[in-house]
Each structure stands twice: as C-alpha cells, then as structure tokens.
Amino acid sequence: MIRSFDKYLQSLKPKYDDDIVDRCNYLLTNMMILICAITVAAKQYVGEPLQCWVPAEFQDSWEQYIENFCFIENTYFVPFADDIPMNATERNQHKIQYYQWIPFILILQALLFLLPRTIWTMFNWRTGLNIQTIVDAAILTRKVDKKRCLKQRTENREDSFAQAQQIAYVMDFNRRKNQCMKLLGKLIFTYK
Fold this sequence. Notes:
By secondary structure, the chain is mainly alpha-helical. It contains six helices and two strands; from the N terminus they run αααβαβαα. Keywords: Cell junction, Cell membrane, Gap junction, Ion channel, Ion transport, Membrane, Transmembrane, Transmembrane helix, Transport.
C-alpha cells in the first residue's frame, strides 16, 4: 500500500527534462495567453461586447438588437471628421471583421505554444528511452567527475610540491657547492 502511494507521489513530482526557456514557453506564455482569452471571451459573451451608437429614441430592446446585430455582422470604422459612406462597397473597405474571433485565436495560440512540449513528450514516450533517467545519470556523472577532478587536482598539486622540493634541494646543493669551490679556490691561490 505504501509503495503504491509512494509511486503515485513520485508521478506527481515534476519531471524536468527541459530548460527554463522551454518551461517559460509552455507554462508562462500559455498561462498569459489563456488569461487574455478568458478575459476577452468574458467581455464578449458575458458582458457587453461593443457599444453601438444608436439614436436616443431607441428603446432598450432595440438597442440590444442593434448591438447584437453589430456584433454578429461586422462593423466598419468611420473617423469622426468623415461622413458615413452611403455606398456599401466603400463601407466594406473599412470593415472590422476580426474582433469576434479574438478569444478563439488566443486559445489556438495557447494550444500551439503547448504543441512542441506535447510532441516531445509523445516521441519520448514512444521511443522507450526515459530522458529523465538519462538526465539524472548525466547529473550524477557530473558530480562524480567533479569529485574525481578535485582528487586529481589535489594529487597534481602534491606531486608539484614534491618536485619543487627536489628542485629547491638541488639548487641549494649547487649553491653550497659553488660557495665551497670559491672558498677552496681562495685558499689554494692565496697560500701558494
């Protein structure tokens, strides 16, 4: 019972076989886009999606009908200084057609940001290789290599220190030998 519970807890533990850029790509970006999509969808489908200018004598039901009509049929943009064009083709040139689709486009973008991670996980699962095990082994090898490297460095320093002591001993011997030779030379040449 405890083993199965432990396995369940291990499956809940996040498995990082990616880096921080990948996580930002499929987690943070995804969350921000979904929050924007929910906000826009709530405004469009729960609140009032847009405000159309209607004559003041229109009743509330007429105004609601016009706003629903404007939302379903596209609207067009006319600057304040210009007059509303009477020609339908001229109005269609300034049509705004995208605003109804913004929540759906944002959700599609969120799914597309999640797609590389899903494909990677699916291919990883189908190959039979467990990338997490490989990554853990690489981390362990790196730690072992670090310990071995420190041990090797310490041994090299000890060897270098021993060689430096031998060189210092030889140099000291040569210095003393030279002093003895000078002294011996002075003694021989002064007493002749």
